[in-house]
TrEMBL record:
Entries under Gene3D superfamilies matching the protein: Divalent-metal-dependent TIM barrel enzymes
SUPFAM superfamilies, A to Z: Xylose isomerase-like
GO molecular-function term, one example from the UniProt record: isomerase activity
Origin species: Pedobacter kyonggii
UniProt entry keywords in alphabetical sequence: Isomerase
Superkingdom of source: Bacteria
Protein's name in the database: Sugar phosphate isomerase/epimerase
């Protein structure tokens, strides 16, 4: 049988993944297990539409079959009818990503408000939450603060939680940049994607523990991608070379979960390992070095084993 270069690479990657899988038990213990918590804690794990090659209906079916509680997807009115039919058919929760992208504060904020209202004020299924990419890293503080003020009030009016993601290029792109927003806006609630902060700071944030602790205390939603000092996503969290980064992220997530268990509140989590070019690739082929869906399902299973 003849093999071309692509066949060889694909086979080699499959073997590599098999030999270097990290046993789930490696990350299955946590110091918070002995702590008492009030009734009401729940963990909802969401599947990312980002990187899926197929229809929204196919995605919802695959998410359900894989064991997810719901999905997170960029809001778009163009897919609304198909999306909500699929959500109902497969009995899935939904969280929406909303954002503006304009380079000037005024039109950006106008788009942001418009998209948020579309995602919430429709006749279909109420979203479990809204995750927002808010503002820009180059906007002035007062311009970015408008996004916080609007979402705090709008969440109270609608009853839909709105979380600001710690995301590169946005308002909360790094730990030091986020500190003022957290300190001066006590009602600011977060989607903690701490992989971005690791990448921006070229570290596992060992010297910014106070800011990280403050962010953890404001977190209601987690994007459980593992980053490192030189990138927002390790190639495969099961590989032994990423042990330090994986353990650092789980130490942060342990604290988030412990707070939610103590408070008896819901925590939502998105398994957000992404496709190329977040996922490293083989040169000249653009083939991903690991399977995105498989890694995300692995993360879902580890979280369930560790925290439930």
């Amino acid at each position: 049988m003849k093999y071309n270069r692509r066949d060889f690479i694909g086979g080699s990657l499959a073997l590599t993944s098999t030999f270097f899988l990290t046993p789930m038990e490696t990350y299955s213990t946590t110091s918070s297990r002995s702590e008492k918590w009030t009734n009401g804690f729940a963990l909802k794990i969401m599947a990312p539409y980002w990187g899926f090659n197929g229809s929204v209906t196919d995605f919802c079916k695959k998410a359900k079959d894989s064991g997810y509680d719901g999905i997170e997807i960029l809001w778009s009115p163009e897919i609304a009818e198909e999306l909500f039919k699929a959500l109902k058919k497969y009995q899935l929760d939904v969280g929406f990503l909303c954002r503006g992208d304009e380079a000037l504060p005024v039109p950006h904020f106008a788009t942001f408000k418009k998209v948020l209202k579309e995602a919430i004020e429709h006749r279909y299924q109420k979203p479990l939450y809204i995750n927002v990419h808010s503002g820009k890293d180059f906007f002035q503080y007062q311009d970015n603060k408008k996004f916080i003020d609007f979402t705090v009030q709008y969440a109270k009016e609608t009853g839909v939680p709105i979380y600001h993601e710690t995301h590169r290029s946005r308002m909360l792109y790094s730990a030091p940049a986020s500190l003022q927003y957290l300190a001066e806006n006590p009602d600011l609630r977060l989607t903690l994607d701490i992989s971005h902060w690791c990448n921006v700071s070229e570290s596992l944030l060992e010297d910014q523990s106070e800011t990280v602790a403050l962010a953890i205390s404001r977190t209601d939603h987690v994007h459980s991608r593992v980053g490192h000092a030189e990138g927002p996503q390790v190639s495969d969290p099961r590989a032994p070379e990423w042990k330090q980064a994986v353990e650092a992220h789980f130490a942060w997530w342990d604290k988030v979960v412990a707070i939610k268990k103590q408070q008896g509140e819901i925590l939502t989590m998105l398994t957000e390992f992404g496709p190329p070019s977040y996922m490293p690739t083989i040169p000249f082929t653009n083939l991903p070095v690991a399977d995105q869906w498989e890694i995300n399902v692995y993360m879902m299973q580890v979280w369930r084993k560790r925290y439930l």
